[in-house]
Amino acid sequence: DWTMHAYRQRAIDKIRAQVGKGRVLCALSGGVDSSVAAVLIHEAIGDQLTCVFVDHGLMRMNEADEVVTMFRDQYNIPLVHVDASGKFLGELEGQTDPETKRKIIGKLFIEVFEEEAKKIGGAEFLAQGTLYPDVIESVSFSGGPSVTIKSHHNVGGLPERMNMQLVEPLRELFKDEVRALGRELGLPDRFIGRHPFPGPGLAIRCPGGITAEKLDILRKADAIYLDEIRKSGQYDKIWQAFAVLLPVQTVGVMGDGRTYEFVCALRAVTSVDGMTADFYQFDMNFLGKTATRIINEVRGINRVVYDVTSKPPGTIEWE
Ligand code: XMP
């Protein structure tokens, strides 16, 4: 893409001019935005950049490994992988209120990130994958508290507290342009085309209390669902698709025994920007086949339902 090629050069010059010989930290989330920002900044200033990946234990199947492998092995970007799952799951234990769960995750994220930043001797700059719509959004909310959809990804409050300046090379771009820039930088298509994933991760797809066991069950169901979606060639038609593990057990039969296990809800929506969404119209055979696979392969789930709520009145996530 010719325009993106030019943008890449301009962005690199700008980053070099801003940062000079300074050090930059980037909180990598595994999402497209922070990844594209990190690769671009690395191209501009090399090892003056260190990425910190705070693994909260709320990622999907194999996700953390994939991110670490891609950045370390493929791009040679210095990356600190912090496994903080014990800390996050510990503090989330017994918490059932959606807002409380989000706040705990946001607070811990900042704490862990700050600790790691200190360990590596600090930095003058903090890189963020802020996009143009994020900028607009926080402006339109001005006057009230700064509520952004990406409350977790924006390590809000940190820059001031740690006396850091922001480096935001994607600030002028829309999502599709970030994807084009990612392709221009050589990120794999499969990675660039990934559905958005919320900062609080599986915590908001496990309504009510979270346990390691529930997360494990949810991960397996979600992986099967996404596998079926990819195999049927529908992945790119869908904005977001994921499984939700409900805090409800129902009775079922398996062989000649009675089961009493959790209900799994499947969600898939089409959308342009995530602000409104329609539920995705799967073929019933697809849903039946996927439900059968989930129930047969995942211990702990004996019933699957499909969410046919659009946004509004529903939200895309369940919490
Ligand atoms: P809702 O559920 O509000 O979600 O319809 C709209 C879009 O935002 C994502 N989402 C989040 N992303 N941190 C994020 O980075 C969050 O706390 C968060 N909550 C929702 C959601 O996945 C969807 O794409």
UniProtKB/TrEMBL annotation:
The chain holds residues 206 to 524 of 524 of the full protein. Catalyzes the synthesis of GMP from XMP. Its EC number is 6.3.5.2. Coiled coil: none annotated. Keywords: ATP-binding, Glutamine amidotransferase, GMP biosynthesis, Ligase, Nucleotide-binding, Purine biosynthesis. Pathway: Purine metabolism; GMP biosynthesis; GMP from XMP (L-Gln route): step 1/1. GO terms for molecular function: ATP binding; GMP synthase activity. It catalyses: XMP + L-glutamine + ATP + H2O = GMP + L-glutamate + AMP + diphosphate + 2 H(+). ATP binds at S29, G30, G31, V32, D33, S34, S35. It is an enzyme of class 6 (ligase). It comes from the Bacteria. This is GMP synthase [glutamine-hydrolyzing]. It comes from Paradevosia tibetensis. Homodimer.
